[in-house]
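pipeline stage [seq->struct] | target=Sensor protein KdpD | organism=bioreactor metagenome | residues=309
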Amino acid sequence: MSLVFILAVYLVAMRTEGYRWGLVASAVGVIGSNFFLTLPYLKINFLLAGYPLTFISMFAVSALTSMLVTRGKEQAALARTAEVEKTRANLLRSVSHDLRTPLTSIIGSSSVLLQSWDKLADPDRRTLVSDIKDDAEWLLNMSENVLSATRMEGSTVIRTEAQPAEEIVYQAVARCRARLSGSDIGIKAPKGLVIVRVDAALIERVLINLIENAYKYAAPPITVEIEPPKNGLAAISVADRGDGVPAEQLDTIFERGRQRPPDSSRGLGIGLSLCRAIVRAHGGEITCQIREGGGTIFRFTLPAEEEEV
């Protein structure tokens, strides 16, 4: 009986906030035990021999259990808050570092155009304008990543609903085709619709990051493939035919600050680490693999309906 009593107090403390309800459950449990389970039945009597010590001990143990459980929950909440603050600080450091290079480039190119417009040949002017456009687009992509990261790190809960994976993929590919001139992006999908339970905007952000990553640092063609559901999970992959990721970087490529190409003046920022955070928040996993014949495959899983529609 004592174990059941303590278990009940434990469950109440786990499912409520603060100390109040755990202590109330302890008091109610002691009174209820006296009323229903001890002689004289259906009467409250704490004065019989041994009863005072027994019930005081029961209340003390249950109250201590309640307080320990509540304190543990508070410490866990503090730990989560500290982790969020640490992640936010790392995000700010990463963003401030990655924004500096394109901003400096934009200022430099625009200054040259303003000061030497008449002296520059038309091809040189076009090159400078093109550089400004590329840097501005990169800044736009970074700002979208920051907004998604802020949304992810502000809450551990995401709003999901059933969505056709094909619709999300087509939307992401369409945006990339419009943004990336000359891009060669293909789509492979099964015959039936694959329904996934996701936040469509966040998954679209994952796909855009992976496609733009392949476009900038790999070689065409880029293929986005949707795989049929299996064991409650559907998979989407983005494959390219570039040089591939060095084997020693496969385990760290999703860590923030570790995915900077050695020959690039600016890295991928928070792109790949954000992809992993979004996928994991949906209950999936993302991997990077070396593609047979050359290239890289980024593959991630998402919760899905078992049957294709």
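stage status: PASS
auto-comment: The radius of gyration is 29 Å. The CA atoms of residues 232 and 267 lie 35 Å apart.
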